[in-house]
């Protein structure tokens, strides 16, 4: 309780109470207030601001953002530009989901100073944990929103402000700036945790609507423990959309935020404006409409229907299309922000969530019968938000291109998926299922991209019920929403190197240092040597470790591996063991190191070229530098074309020819981010308060700890050997540099000459001769196929004549040796065309036996089933068979039983037709 005993509450006449419904403690100026006043699933309140806004005037989202930022600017806070929505500076998160994420973990942990103290920001955020509620709760839940944050970072020797002043600022903003009556403002106690930090908090409630969370962050979450931080952070989250909604009093938040854009989508979908009273009443009860409490939600809707004199089914019919439009409007805004920052839709990481949003949007538009308008709606969103976020306009072409490719992929998925769903539905029904299991729904979405609504639509035709969980998309999103790394307990330094000083990295002082002298500090297990300084580069950032030798007092050891543990560098050696305390002379395998330097610098050049050719969405997804062959993985939404590869290669070599300087600079992290932006983290997150920036003048800037050339001309030729698609949304570029690039080129030329020799033509005529050869080969294949078809028809006629009559059908059974199954199938198909009352059983013998059974349409009516005959015949051969009633195949390895198998087939035919 002490956490919340603030002077402000006492001075302003607030009293502390406990809500009898939800059990939370809250502070209010109303002495007779019994409930906490929050519109929630417990029914503690309704939204009383609908049609009765408590603010002095109405605000648009832009006006509310400016009112918030200006208010705190006037009170000594520096306005900070919003950070990206893709949290490239974090390795434990994909997206920025709160304004404090901008400053975690380095600022909140005390590693680096904040960009200003105190500061104010309006940060676009993305959250997908309540995606199923977006739309049905009228805007209480959104996937994209702006979080206004005023932050103060309190150091042991410098207090900015803490809890009391934070609440005072909020109260002043709501009451004096916006004009809300003080008695309408309730503060609710709570505890907040997120992004690896935690602390007590108070939530502000006005007329039922939670507007802000004021967090007093003072702990770091380490495993299951709370560790006190050296810095106490004021972390506030003001929902700018919610304040806008409060000021307008519209039935839903969507009308307040999107205004004319929402109306435009409604008109396009042909959704009529519902009765304002109905929508307003639902808005008032939207705190009860969360899908996770279905019974409460349903009861609230029944209540509205009864009050309005409607049937519940009629109300639902009115609401469904409106909710879909709400959801589409939210999702398409999320989409443009994600794609504008280089997220490529895929089946991995943050790309998975972009794809989820696209496919969910397309499915909703399909249900509204305007799926062909998806690109138009996204284009409208770009126009609508570009004034506030100009980068959206700059990225318009890339956004639209990526979206079109992804929509086309989904259309193809739907086309191919229909038969798959039908097969699964039939199989489930045959095995006794009456409903489609939830795990199969998730599997179909994750593995095949098929939404549960599509599965339901198709399965219902097969007589299988599909109950879609209310939280389906939330469940799917939660499986993919967290990056692989999570906050864990600090890694322990091995006891063997505890107390050792940081190894001095000589390769940063002189990138061309080939030899050096150092002192041996420790030898571990007779094979790991710790020096006080080293020029050997340890493995990191996709660059392999250096190799070389250590010489000492007549002894010699070979450095086979170099690794970093904490701040200490370990050299794994083979050979003589240097004594502790002795001086050693290190010699690098310079040719090896120099090739790695060239490859690493070339990697930076190629990613710069890829970005210029493909667009700003091209980000490095991984890299591995090699002495001869290196690879660079980049995000891209389709396969690289030959023309794109050539352009990338040409641009990269232009940079080499220009012989640009490659500069390395050590900068405080916050300064590097301010100067160069978050493209710095092209190669991934780089730890540390001070980071090393590698800058190729006018071409590329990255935070990087690797070794590089001094000028680009040192690299020599850059040759892209080939490219491949390593996963959805990621292209791999394989390349060589320097003399190895020349070797690769010469090897290609040698192969060309070899092909020329085989063709018996000069190298310059290879293309012409190859084309002639291909045409001749195609003609030969056509002629062979023609002859094969003629032969099949001839054999079919022969076998029809030779067939014998078994009661009402004619049958032909025969074994073959080394005859292709495809040819036998052709014969069988031709034969039943000639005589539909025919059954053919062929057994082709090679290393194993293949059974082919073909039943004509008339023979089928006599009780014959190709599946039964194939399966039982194959069982004699030690195998199984399957197929359709008119055509089935099987086989086995017991080729000595072919005659017995053929006899078995004959017996089945006889029994089948005699039983009719």
Describe the structure in brief.
The protein is of the alpha+beta class.
- Whole-number mean pLDDT: 89
Outline? globular
CATH class of the domain at 36-257: Alpha Beta
| Main sheet: strands, sense, barrel | 9 strands, mixed
Structural write-up:
With 916 residues, the protein is an alpha+beta fold. Among the domains are: 36-257, 2-Layer Sandwich (BirA Bifunctional Protein, domain 2), CATH 3.30.930; 495-588, Elongation Factor Tu (Ef-tu), domain 3 (Beta Barrel); 593-751, Threonyl-trna Synthetase, Chain A, domain 2 (Threonyl-tRNA Synthetase, Chain A, domain 2, 2-Layer Sandwich), CATH 3.30.980; 786-914, Diaminopimelate Epimerase, Chain A, domain 1, CATH 3.10.310.40. It has 26 helices and 30 strands. Strands 1-2-6-7-8-9-5-4-3 form a 9-stranded mixed beta sheet. Strands 11-12-16-15-14-17 form a 6-stranded antiparallel barrel. The model is unreliable at 484-493 (pLDDT under 50).
Keywords:
single chain; six-stranded antiparallel barrel; 26 helices; 40% helix; alpha+beta; Elongation Factor Tu (Ef-tu), domain 3; Threonyl-tRNA Synthetase, Chain A, domain 2; globular; 916 residues; BirA Bifunctional Protein, domain 2; nine-stranded mixed beta sheet
Secondary structure blueprint with pairings:
Elements lengths: L6 H5 L3 E4 L6 E4 L32 H13 L4 E2 L39 E8 L17 E11 L8 H15 L7 E10 L2 E10 L2 E14 L2 E15 H9 L4 H6 L1 H10 L6 H9 L9 H14 L4 H29 L8 H19 L6 H12 L5 H4 L1 H35 L7 H11 L3 H10 L10 H9 L23 E2 H4 L5 E10 L3 E4 L1 E2 L13 E5 L2 E11 L2 E8 L7 E6 L1 H25 L5 E5 L5 E6 L6 H17 L3 E7 H8 L13 E7 L3 E4 L14 E10 L2 E8 H22 L6 H37 L1 E3 L2 E9 L3 H14 L3 E8 L3 E7 L1 H4 L5 H11 L4 E3 L3 E6 L5 H17 L2
Parallel strand pairs: 3-4, 10-13, 26-27
Antiparallel strand pairs: 1-2, 2-6, 4-5, 5-9, 6-7, 7-8, 8-9, 11-12, 11-17, 12-16, 14-15, 14-17, 15-16, 18-19, 19-24, 20-21, 21-22, 23-24, 25-26, 27-28, 28-30, 29-30
């Amino acid at each position: 309780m002490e956490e919340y005993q603030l002077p402000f509450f006492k001075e302003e006449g607030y009293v502390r109470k406990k809500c009898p419904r939800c059990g939370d403690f809250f502070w209010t100026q109303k002495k007779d207030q019994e409930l906490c006043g929050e519109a929630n699933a417990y029914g503690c309140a309704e939204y009383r601001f609908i049609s009765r806004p408590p603010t002095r005037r109405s605000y648009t989202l832009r006006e509310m953002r400016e009112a918030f930022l200006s208010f705190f600017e006037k009170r000594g806070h520096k306005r900070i530009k919003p950070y990206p929505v893709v949290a490239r500076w974090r390795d434990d998160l994909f997206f920025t989901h709160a304004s404090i994420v901008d400053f975690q973990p380095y600022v909140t942990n005390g590693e680096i100073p904040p960009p200003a103290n105190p500061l104010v920001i309006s940060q676009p955020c993305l959250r997908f944990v309540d995606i199923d509620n977006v739309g049905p709760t009228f805007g209480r839940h959104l996937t994209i929103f702006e979080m206004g944050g005023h932050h103060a970072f309190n150091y042991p020797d410098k207090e900015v402000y803490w809890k009391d002043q934070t609440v005072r600022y909020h109260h002043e903003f709501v009451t004096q700036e916006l004009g809300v009556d003080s008695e309408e403002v309730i503060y609710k106690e709570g505890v907040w945790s997120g992004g690896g930090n935690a602390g007590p908090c108070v939530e502000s409630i006005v007329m039922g609507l939670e507007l802000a969370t004021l967090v007093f962050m003072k702990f770091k979450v380490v495993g299951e423990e709370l560790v006190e931080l050296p810095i106490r952070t004021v972390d506030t989250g003001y929902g700018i959309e919610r304040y806008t909604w409060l000021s307008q009093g519209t039935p839903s938040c969507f009308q307040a935020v999107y205004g004319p854009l929402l109306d435009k989508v409604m008109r396009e979908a042909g959704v009529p404006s519902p009765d304002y009273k109905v929508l307003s009443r639902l808005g008032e009860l939207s705190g009860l409409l969360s899908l996770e409490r279905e019974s409460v939600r349903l009861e609230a809707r029944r209540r509205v229907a009864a009050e309005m004199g409607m049937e519940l089914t009629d109300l639902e019919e009115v609401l469904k299309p409106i909710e879909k439009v709400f959801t589409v409007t939210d999702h398409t805004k999320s989409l443009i922000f994600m794609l504008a920052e280089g997220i490529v839709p895929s089946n991995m990481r943050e790309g998975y969530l972009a794809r989820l949003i696209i496919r969910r949007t397309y499915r909703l538009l399909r249900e509204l019968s305007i799926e062909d308008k998806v690109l138009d709606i996204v284009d409208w969103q770009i126009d609508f938000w570009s004034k506030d976020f100009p980068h959206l306009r700059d990225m318009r072409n890339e956004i639209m291109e990526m979206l079109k490719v992804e929509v086309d992929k989904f259309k193809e998925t739907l086309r191919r998926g229909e038969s798959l769903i039908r097969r699964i539905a039939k199989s489930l029904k045959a095995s006794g299922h009456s409903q489609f299991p939830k795990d199969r729904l998730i599997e179909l979405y994750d593995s095949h991209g098929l939404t549960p609504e599509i599965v339901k639509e198709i399965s219902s035709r097969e007589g299988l019920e599909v109950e879609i969980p209310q939280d389906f998309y939330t469940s799917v999103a939660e499986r993919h929403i967290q990056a692989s790394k999570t906050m864990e307990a600090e890694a322990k330094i091995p006891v063997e190197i505890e107390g050792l000083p940081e190894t001095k990295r000589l390769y940063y002082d002189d990138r061309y240092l080939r030899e050096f002298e150092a002192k041996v500090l420790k030898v571990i297990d007779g094979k790991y040597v710790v020096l006080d300084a080293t020029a050997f580069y340890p493995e990191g950032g996709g660059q392999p470790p250096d190799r070389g030798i250590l010489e000492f007092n007549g002894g010699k050891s070979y450095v086979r591996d170099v690794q970093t543990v904490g701040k200490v560098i370990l050299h794994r050696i083979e050979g003589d063991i240097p004594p502790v305390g002795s001086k050693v002379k290190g010699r690098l395998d310079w040719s090896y190191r120099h090739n790695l330097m060239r490859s690493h610098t070339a990697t930076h050049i190629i990613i710069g070229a890829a970005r210029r050719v493909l667009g700003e969405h091209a980000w490095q997804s991984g890299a591995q530098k090699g002495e001869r062959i290196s690879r660079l993985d980049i995000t891209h939404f389709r396969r690289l074309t030959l023309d794109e590869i050539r352009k990338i290669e040409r641009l990269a070599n232009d940079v080499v020819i220009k012989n640009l300087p490659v500069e390395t600079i050590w900068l405080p992290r916050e300064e590097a981010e301010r100067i160069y932006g978050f493209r710095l983290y092209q190669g991934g997150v780089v730890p540390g308060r001070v980071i090393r920036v590698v800058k190729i003048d006018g071409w590329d800037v990255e935070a990087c700890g690797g070794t590089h050339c001094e000028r680009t001309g040192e690299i020599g030729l850059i040759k892209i050997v080939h490219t491949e698609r390593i996963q959805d949304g990621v292209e791999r570029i394989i390349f060589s540099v320097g003399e190895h690039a020349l070797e690769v080129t010469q090897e290609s030329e040698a192969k060309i000459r070899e092909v020329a020799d085989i063709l018996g033509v000069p190298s310059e005529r290879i293309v012409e001769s190859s084309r002639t050869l291909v045409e001749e080969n195609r003609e030969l294949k056509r002629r062979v196929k023609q002859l094969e078809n003629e032969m099949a028809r001839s054999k079919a006629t022969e076998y029809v004549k030779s067939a014998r009559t078994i009661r009402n059908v004619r049958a032909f059974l025969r074994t073959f040796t080394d005859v292709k199954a495809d040819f036998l199938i052709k014969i069988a198909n031709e034969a039943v065309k000639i005589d539909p009352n025919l059954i053919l059983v062929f057994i082709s013998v090679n290393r194993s036996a293949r059974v082919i059974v073909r039943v004509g349409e008339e023979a089928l009516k006599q009780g014959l089933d190709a599946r039964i005959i194939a399966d039982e015949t194959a069982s004699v051969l030690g195998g199984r068979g399957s197929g359709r009633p008119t055509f089935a195949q099987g086989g086995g390895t017991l080729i000595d039983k072919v005659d017995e198998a053929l006899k078995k087939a004959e017996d089945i035919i006889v029994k089948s037709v005699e039983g009719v």
